[in-house]
Amino acid sequence: MTESRASRGTSVSTVLGRRLGGELLRLRESRGMKQPQAAEVLSSSVAKVAKMERGWVPMRDPDIRALCDLYEVDDPKIVNRLLGLAKTDRDRRRAKGWWNQHPALSDMVEYVALEDIATHIRTWQLSIVPGLLQTPDYARALAVGSGSWDDPDEVEPFVESRMARRARLGGERPLQLWAVVHEAALRQLVGGRDVMRGQLGHLLDSLKLPNIRLQVLPFLAGAHPGMTSAFTIVSFAEPGAVDVVHMDTTSSTLWLESEDDAANEGEIFGRTARQALAQQDSAVLIDGIRKEL
């Protein structure tokens, strides 16, 4: 599903909201029930039920419990998973973070907001260094190289916003980052030799942080499960909360929001990581490439 930027009144369709609404829609249809029956038990309108099922409005715990009762869902694990997903979505909607002050992040607001409340990130990158591990010079060179900026003055705000994201790797609740990067991303001369030496040195420094795991998939690994696309899997703290998968394409941002999709991408990530070098061997390779420059 492509990320929607539309809004209706004060309602906004969010990734997590759509996932929760889809779950409730599936449960309702499995019982052969219609939206008016759900509206009656909630003492609300059919229009509100429709918005809930499409992820347009945050959901209260009492409403979720009432719908679970109506749909005869008595498995505590399922109920708790839905409640956890709703809480994460409410936290996301209430968040008024620094990203709202950065117009340069307009295409990434939803992802960065989720990144802020996530506990774990797994990312597989084919051709670039993951955003959370980029240096300012590298990010600037990427922006300039993309050729998509009409005004050169827009580049620096983009670089500043990308650097602000790195704060999630520190603080009281640092994000747990597991990155698998193809060797090609480390050898591409983004910004030239000096920029790449600095970027590779930063990767080596990042490996010293206990919350960062970095592996390199070398050219010698041959064919591998991640050859078709790069992706990022975002995970949350709530028990049973669903992972969501983020992909960037040349024309849009793609979210994979179903449980099956998330499990499939998680399996691809795991198989790719198993073919990659261990972290210590990855550090040796990164250092070797840096010295070659």
Structure write-up:
α1 runs antiparallel to α5 and α4 (61-70) runs antiparallel to α5. The chain has 293 residues and is α/β, with parallel strands linked by helices. It has 12 helices and 8 strands. It has helices at 15-30, 35-42, 46-53, 61-70, 76-94, 109-117, 136-146, 155-165, 183-187, 193-206, 259-275, 279-292, and strands spanning 7-8, 11-12, 120-125, 176-182, 212-217, 231-235, 244-248, 253-256. β1 (7-8) and β2 form a beta hairpin. The longest helix has 19 residues, at 76-94. It folds into 2 domains: 7-94, 434 Repressor (Amino-terminal Domain) (Orthogonal Bundle), CATH 1.10.260.40; 98-292, Endonuclease, Chain A (2-Layer Sandwich), CATH 3.30.870. The strands form 2 sheets. Strands 5-4-3-6-7-8 form a 6-stranded mixed sheet, with helices on both faces.
Strand content of the residues, in percent?
5-15%
What name does CATH use for the topology of the largest domain? Answer: Endonuclease, Chain A
Strand order of the largest sheet: 5-4-3-6-7-8
Domain count: 2
What is the CATH architecture assignment of the largest domain?
2-Layer Sandwich
Q: Low-confidence spans: pLDDT under 50, at least 5 residues?
A: 1-10
Give the structural class. Answer: alpha/beta
